[in-house]
Amino acid sequence: MGLQDFIHRLLPRDDRFFDLLERQAGVAHDAAVALASFADPERDVGSVSEEVQEFEHQGDALVHELEESLARTFVTPLDREDIHLLSSALDEVLDLTNYAARACAMLGVERPTTPMVELMRLLVAITDTLKEAVPLLRRRSFVELRAATRKIRQLEKDGDRIHREAVTALFHSEGLPAQVLLREREVLEDLEAAVDRCEKVADQLANLAVKHG
């Protein structure tokens, strides 16, 4: 046990930060689920985008609450910088999910393509793993946390492959209008960016597992 961990055990601490981080991970997953619902033929792009936007607002409120709590709290369960970095990374996942939803709406994507749906569903899976991983910090279950980060990294690699194959196919599609090519590539890149940012969260979690494990 490090000196900092020993001090944290002796002093009273405010565990609301775990609550806020776990809620951030949950909202990121909720937004991914909302975005993936676009695969349902009965869902239209406008309503999906609005739903994801609402989750993004919830995420912003959580970030604001966490930052205010950091300013008021003397002893935190993790280093302040670590809490801030993890919160920021989770917020970026949510922001990028919202960007993907907005791109679909702004660029007039009436129905998602098969690769878009694959990336949306992958985003649901990877944020679900994040949602399960973040509470492991509170429980100090660092072995399980490291296993979760490995799973997240593997899912991110799957996202890279789907994105790469989809973009390659786009540029090899004869007769595909340039407008359609650019629109689909933009949405695919936004989706891949959201999946990719989950790896940044995994890196933060892995660092904490090493630091405190």
Main sheet summary: none
- The helix fraction, in percent, is over 70%
Number of domains: 1
By DSSP, the count of extended strands is 0
The CATH superfamily is known as Phosphate transport system protein phou homolog 2, domain 2
Helical stretch count?
8
Strand content: under 5%
The assembly state of the depicted protein chains is single chain
Task: Using the 3D structure, state the CATH architecture.
Answer: Up-down Bundle
CATH topology: Methane Monooxygenase Hydroxylase, Chain G, domain 1
- What is the level 1 CATH name? Mainly Alpha
End-to-end CA span: 8 Å
Strand and helix map with partners:
Layout: H1 3-10, H2 16-36, H3 45-72, H4 80-106, H5 114-133, H6 135-139, H7 142-171, H8 178-212
Structure overview:
The chain has 213 residues and is an all-alpha fold. The chain has a single domain, classed as Phosphate transport system protein phou homolog 2, domain 2 (Methane Monooxygenase Hydroxylase, Chain G, domain 1). Helices cover 82% and strands 0% of the residues. It is globular, with a radius of gyration of 19 Å.
Report a brief summary of the structure.
The chain is mostly helical and 213 residues long. 82% of the residues lie in helices and 0% in strands.
List keywords for this structure.
213 residues, mainly alpha, Methane Monooxygenase Hydroxylase, Chain G, domain 1, globular
